[in-house]
Protein 1
Amino acid sequence: MNGGTVLGFDFGARRIGVAVGQTVTGNASPLITLTSRHGRPDWEAIGRLVEQWRPHALVVGLPVHMDGSIHELAAPVQAFAAELGTRYALPVELIDERLSSHAAQERAAGDGRGRGVGRAWKEQLDRLAAQVILETWLAHQGHRQ
């Protein structure tokens, strides 16, 4: 894939963490956590992000069990990814998100934020998980070139 901006998503029924990354540098940053309403993503907010960042691709974390088998939550994630591709006419790639939540918690704790509770903490973890997912994908891209 050519260099450019990529958006990464950590999909959940209640919240969707979003990160932005750059294929040229291989870096990603946590961006925002969107709230889903009645299990439906906030497509207007996602559309604004796509318009603002003008990504050339979208990356979505796919839940996978530690043994490599597909997680039971994979179907809604796959439906979300398919809808992203249809709505925004962009390539969408799914990537194994094993341990992304754990890595996000370690990053948050390592930043001196400790272990938190509540909505703000969960939203922060969702953004950080999206960053981990996107960094994993970006690293994978580096090995393909």
Protein 2
Amino acid sequence: MTVLIPRSAVDVIRAHGRAAYPEEGCGFLIGKEGTPRRVEESRPARNVAKESRTTRYDVDPADTFRLTKELRGTGREIVGFFHSHPDHPARPSEFDRSRAWTWYTYVIVSVEGGKAVDLRAWVLEETEKARAFREEDIQLI
């Protein structure tokens, strides 16, 4: 599976990860559903996690509400989320898996020592036996 992402959206994700370091940064992937999924914009959100912000994120529900209202009737929607992993690989953690939904793309940027070093996309697949992430190919547009 492939996800199309403009370079400008990737740049925003990397910059937000650097700015949030050493905490996790997070935000929205905005675009259109389809095959392949198309991200048109990435937009930072506030990480409102109450604790362990270096290894956890919670997107502010107020940000989600405002964005959903803004996108209504535009033909665009939230197609996923992004977050950073400070000093850890750009792979989903068990915490990420426990909170993920199958219909979204999750982009993770690894930020080591304040520098964005790797960026990968993931989708959660759920079967009767397991819930596991599968990596998506990123095609820059």
